[in-house]
Structure formats: structure tokens, C-alpha cells
# Entry
Amino acid sequence: MWAEILVIVIKVVVVSSVLLTLVPIMVWVERRGAAMIQDRLGPNRVGPFGLLQPIVDAVKLITKEDLTPSGVKGVDRLLYLLAPSIALVVAISVFIAVPFGFDPGLKLFGHAIDGFIVAPNLNLGILYIFAIASLGVYSVVLAGWASNNKYSLMGGIRASAQMVSYELAMTISVVGVLMVSGSFGLQDVVLHQSGTWFGFIPRWNVFPQIIGAITFIVAAFAETNRLPFDLVEAEAELVVGYHTEYSSMRFAAFFMSEYVNMVTASSLIVILFFGGWTLPGFATPAGWLGALVSIGIFAVKVAFFLWFFVWVRWTLPRFRFDQLMALGWKTMIPLAVLNFLLVGAGMALRNL
Amino acid sequence: MVTYVFLVAAAVAIVFALLAIVHRNPIVNVLSLLVVFFALAAIYAVLGMDFLAAMQLIVYAGAVLVLFLFVIMLLNIKSVERIGSGRPLQAVFGALTAIAIATATVLAIRQLTPSWGALLPGSAKGTVYPLGHALLTSHTFAFELISVLLVASLVGAYVLARKEDR
Amino acid sequence: MIPIPYTWVLILATVLFGIGAIGVLLRRNAIAIFLSLEIMLNSANLAFAAFALKLAYEGHGAAAAAGQLFVFFIIAVAAAEAAVGLALFIAMFRLKETIDVDRFNILRW
# Structure
């Protein structure tokens, strides 16, 4: 009983602290990566290669004054204060259904770890992730509404339309993966992808379902509000959109939630389409070593997609809003449906 | 434990449903309704209907209420009228009617013999499989009708909200 | 077994239905009416869930699954209804600059 609770507490603490520690690292990667792509130096004054810059940034944000715009009072003020917390809570709680390593039946304090996932017995798996992630839009919408600022309001309106539209494509593009693995649990999805075809092609879902993978990745960019889909904050049009009025740690909460969402999105891309912690032709060793190696493989894959997010952000220009909507409804959703029809047809033909 | 979760969720649902219909700020109405839907999702979860709990959150909380917020923000509705204002007589009769309906139904329910609930058969690993199986075997026609309805409403919404370009 | 009598769930559904009905009858803002309507739809869902609970306990598995599927269908219908309804409100707002339903008496003459 107590060992069980202890194991769960340890999982929660480790996962949330790793997620929040990744934020400053990603900020550094983003700034240095942007500098590299734009042929300049980027932050290099604080610490070696500017590695301590995020700490200085954090100190600056903590010590800044926490402003509330004038005219925001009563219920609006409550919503204004609530919005950043919603963003961060949603971003972190999505991650509890994400498995991040191979568990060969390890025990901690005499209790089975039950897989490297905070909530192993959640039957819903990816449905839970979609259910909670779809609440993230409320933080943006509420911040936009409660800020009493027309640019923030525009950001909120755009966010509500954009997130609902791309959520459809995202959900449909996952259906193919769920069909072949026959389960909503992400651990089963990963286990289904171990091994190879013809001895050299990894059994990753990305190869048979390349359309689904592309639509999922594009929709993930839209759901995390990253360029080329950051219409919600579009600094050239809307100042910075929904968080224009926020300062100090409330601004930082939005910022952190964006990076945590990126980590979650990268993890989902890796799990659903790139084999999770499996590597073809590599047998995971037993015991704790194997667990650590599998977590390492997973981390490397996730790190690649995190870099991919940065890379795309500083390479592609922003869409126009009508282009965004047209892409979402006229291209992404039909492609996602096509993917799942193809997968269904393939499965039916194999069973003939 | 399960009983307490149910009772707390039920109380939350009732309080926030009242807030959703009496408050004058439309955003507060929508958010109270969000809390109601959350409470209902919790109730579905403790009743062992995990698929319905997920659907409740994905469809209602994630899409329908966001649409409401979108329209409220688009039309910039700052506040709505006090409940029952403008037509006092109708308000009294309306409230009496609604309360009478509710009371009559509660009295009718009290005639039923209460029995415990049980999980859906075959749902040891979640209700998705038994529900999906039933959906695509015995309820295929209803399922197809729903898809037709969704397409019709998509087209209908587009036609209604479109700006006439002449 | 789930230690909740299905009648409790039914009573909660009834109370929510009453609250929703009061909202529909007493409010004049179209969006507020629509929100109350969603409460009523949800209470219907809850009633279906309650009876599914009872049927599953009595061993009618197929009927219990049908009860839960009805909730699924109602959720889908509610989504369709919300899309059309909100489009209607936008069209109404373009016409009269308000969505107070008492102002939409133009069919009266």
C-alpha cells in the first residue's frame, strides 16, 4: 500500500521536475538555434556558451512586477489570474499517460514499477491525452478575453478556431495507428512497433502510415501554437496576442506551458510513429540498465523532434489566417481520413 | 469512496448548473457549464463508463464550449440580461412549470426499486471495445445516420454563417 | 459492482433537467438559452447512463451497451446542433445587432 503510493509519488515528482527542467534547456536551445540559423551568435555571455542564460532569465522574470491591466476587475480579474495556471496544469497533467521507457518487470521498494508511465492502469491512454489536451485552449481564450485588450481578444478568437480545427485532423490521423496496434494504451502502441520488416526496415508506423505521420506532426505544430501556426501570438499583427498584458511569472507560466506542450507533442510523435523506446536490431538488456538505455533512446528521439520544432520555427514564415483554416479543413482532414482508409483497406486485404 | 466521489460531483454539478443559468457574465456561464461537464465526466468515470467520460470531455469541453466562447467573443457580448427580467408573469409561470416537472419526475423515480449498478459486460479493460463492437454491429444504421447528420450540420452551419457576397 | 443506486443518478439527472428547463424558459439571450439546453441534453445523457447501469446489473449486457451508445449518439447530435445553432446566432446578430430572442418577432406581422 505505502510502497505503491511511494512509487506513484516518485513517478509524479520525477516526471514533473524533468518536464520543468527541460524548459530552460529548450529556451537556451531555441535561442542558440535561432542564432545559428540566422548566422549570429545568440546569448553567449552568461556561463559557457551562454548555458546559464535561462537562469538569469528566470531570476529576471521572478523579480519583475506582476501587473494587472486597468479595467480588469471582478470576475474578469479572477479569470485573468486563472488563465496561466490552467495552461501549466493542463500541459503537465497530459504527460501522465505518456510511457517513456521499457520496463522489464522492475521493482522499487518491493513494489512493481508497472511501466515507466505515471498512470499505467488508465484504460483510455491516448483518449485521456486528447481529452485533457483539448482543455489547453481555455487558458488562451480566457487570457485573451480577460486582458481587456483587443489584440489579446483577437488572439483568443484565433486560438479557439485554430485549436478546434486542428484537433480534428490530429485525432483522425492517430486512428490508423490505434487500428494496427488494437489498443488505446500507448505502451501497447510502442510494443507493436518493435522488430523489423524484411530484416532492415524498422516496424515503425511512420513507414506504412507516412500520410498519418505528416498530418499528425503538422497538427501537433498547430496545437502547440508554434510557427508556422503561431497566429495566436503573431507578434507582427497582434503585439504578442493573448499574453500581451501578462508579466512576471504569469507570463513565464504561459512560456513554460508552451515548452512542456512541445515536449509532450514530440513524445507523442515518437511513440505513435517512430517506435518509442525501441530500436531495430537492438535487444534491450535486462534489469535497470535496460530501463535506463530505453529511456535514453526515447530521450534522444524526443530531443530530435524538439530540435525539429526549433528548426521549423526559424525556417518557415507564418501562415495567413485564411490559409491556416483552408489548410486545416481542406487538406489536413481529408489527408488524415485518407490515411485511415488506407490502413483499414490494408488490414482488410491482409485478413482476406 | 465511489459513493463520496459521486455525491461530491453531483453537488458540484448542481451548484454550477445554477450558476450557469443565473450569472450575467456570458463567459462565466460557459465556464460554469465547463465545470458541470467535468463533474458529469467524473460521474461517468466512477460509474465505470470511461469511454463516455472521455467523450464528454473531448466533445463537450474541448469543442462545443469552445465554439460558444468563440461566438461570445466574436459578437463581443459583455453581459446578458438578469434571469427572468422583462416578462415577470411568464418568468413565474415558467419557473413553476420547470419545478413542477422536476418534482413530478423525482416523485415518479421514488416509486422505482433502487438497485446497485454493474460494469458493462466485457469491459474489464475499458468500455471502448464492447461499445465499439456494438456500434459497428447492432447499431450500424444509427452510426451511419449520425455521420449524415454531421455532414448536414456542417453544410448548414456554413450556409447560415456565410457572408453574402454580391 | 458499483455501490451507487441508479435512482440517485436519475434524481441528479432530473434536478439538472429542471435547472436547464428554468434557464430555457426564463432567459432571453439566445446563447444563454442554448447553454441551458445543453444542461438539459446532458441530464438526458445521465438518465441513459443510469438505466445502462441498472440493465448491466440485471444482466442485460446488450441493452446496457445500447444505453451507453445512446449517450454517444446524443453527444454527437449535440455537437451538430451547437454548430448550426451558433451559426444561426451569428446570422441573427448580423440582422439585428442583438441576439435577444424577444427582438426576433419579425414573423409576427
Q: What stands out?
A: The two ends of chain A are 49 Å apart (CA to CA). Chain A has twelve helices and four strands.
